Amino acid sequence: MNVHRLRQIPSVDRLLGLEATQKLIDAFGREETVDALRDVLDAVRDEVRRGSEIPDDAALAARAGLRLEELLTPTLRPVINATGVIIHTNLGRAPLSQAAREAMDRVSQGYASLEYDLEAGERGHRTTHAERLLCRLTGAESALVVNNNAGAVLLALTAMAQDRGVIISRGQLVEIGGGFRVPDVMAQSGARLVEVGTTNRTHMYDYENAIEASDDIALILRAHHSNFRVVGFTSEPTLNELVELGKRYDLPVVDDLGSGALLDTSRFGLAHEPTVQESVETGAAVICFSGDKLLGGPQAGIIVGKAAHVDPLKSHPLTRALRPDKLCLVALQETLLHYVRGEAVDEVPVWRMMAAPLSEIAERAERWRETLRQAGVAVEIADGLSTVGGGSLPGETLPTKLVALLTPHPDRLARSLRDADPPIIARIENDQLMLDPRTVRPEEEQVLLENVEAAATLMEA
Description:
Blueprint lengths: L1 H6 L4 H5 L2 H10 L1 H20 L7 H16 L7 E2 L16 H11 L7 E2 L4 E2 L4 H11 L3 E5 L2 H13 L3 E5 L12 H8 L2 E5 L7 H9 L4 E7 L15 H11 L3 E6 L17 H7 L3 E5 L10 E5 L1 H8 L2 H6 L3 H15 L3 H4 L1 H7 L2 H17 L4 E11 L2 E14 L4 H9 L5 E2 L1 E3 L2 E4 L9 H16 L1
Parallel strand pairs: 1-13, 5-6, 5-7, 7-8, 8-9
Antiparallel strand pairs: 2-3, 4-10, 9-10, 11-12, 12-15, 14-15
């Protein structure tokens, strides 16, 4: 009986004659449509063998359409970040300024002076585009850009300490996002890890003893506590003390700053995050930091410092494997120009979000509440906290006003918002679904409110 029923399943050619299938071909192409139909028919054969009925031709074409939409719909999509986490690693970290986005669009449309010296009329170097701005802003002698900060640290250790010892405090041997660990990065560089001190306390004599005990120490590495905090009975030498120790023993200090702030975070009611300028002024030989955290630019690893140590990195073979593309460099260039012009707080989104006064956020929250209430959505305003995120300023928060969507099923509503176009990412706190205006761009407000209304109405239906 199953064999007879299997023969009743329509052929691909028959389904291709349907008007609905022709629409799929117009939308997705003939080859992809044929593959989808074959996949659907294979699935139907398995279902029939298990006793299921054969769907009609229209249903089969509809299933092929769903398969094509699932296969060909992009998974990397813009979303609305209503979580209140300013530098959200899972949501792409720092949003770019309008100037950076426009510069990327201009450069991507055609050719660009990536490695061409317009003045000399000959081949140039891609490192020059951001280098002059980085040196001007930080006071460093030289600068280099690679694709991310882990790559920057890897390059520095590979070039400066391969097969030699690198001293680091045990309290700085941390795991960062995605399961990447500082010791693992060091191991890949070929450097020999020399741990000193304990998890919570490391003293100058720990470093001195390690230097005296070995004749192949290449450098001292400091990994800034940018994504964790040890509290209580703790101590460790300052960067200045490590630099002075390095001078005595003729050892360079590499400072892995992580977030890489160029502005003083204490201006915004947060703890002071060591700035790149401070590391340069203190005398660190090489400073590594991210481009897409507190700098507020694209994903990049930035290396600045003394020319004697940074310049050799530019010709190292690993640098080519880690080099950034033209879109990264032009976005970074535009982001740095905001700092040069003194407009970073107004133009760089992460700083604008941190600087937003509570009164402004309260006004937006009240506007959202009134709009949603008029649409019949149960909502109230609650006090809350925004966080910087992205491995920056651990434990530091900013006061905010949250828009709480009153529903007995916050998980279901959160899922419905994620299914919206564009998806809305909220947070659940105290069994309520919360929206934080701090991380929602003003131009996103209307579509956010429309999608929240639609999702809430669907929940009640």
